[in-house]
Amino acid sequence: MSLKHSLQTLAGSCLLSFSSVLFATPVNVNLATSYEIAESLHVEQRLAERISIHCQYVTCRNAKDLLDITGINKIMLKQIEKDLIFNIMDRGTGYSDDC
């Protein structure tokens, strides 16, 4: 593999990572299902499940509360922080009250 190809691949994967962060939607991690978390934050389902379970047992009040979860470090937290909602009265966007 040439250096040019390697750089193009790296640039492409960075662009994909950046674009998924751009299109994330706010989500209340204390109320959302793991599927809603995964879809809203563009994270893997397994990580979304860990977030959901953690926030069911510990009411998360700020982004730093998520650092206790395996798979979340300061870099990832900084990427998703703006789309995290913790107020239990605010469900965020993308939720339906339909029965």
Low-confidence stretches: 15-21
- Proportion of helical residues: 40-55%
User: What is the C-level CATH assignment?
Assistant: Mainly Alpha
Count of individual domains: 1
Return the CATH architecture: Orthogonal Bundle
Considering the chains and any ligands shown, give keywords for the structure.
single chain; 99 residues; mainly alpha; two-stranded parallel ribbon; 2 strands; 48% helix; globular; RuvA_2-like; signal
Give me the secondary-structure topology.
Blueprint: H1 3-22, E1 27-28, H2 34-41, H3 45-57, H4 74-80, E2 84-85
Helix pairs in contact: 2-3
Summarize the structure.
The chain has 99 residues and is mainly alpha-helical. It contains 4 helices and 2 strands, in the order αβαααβ.
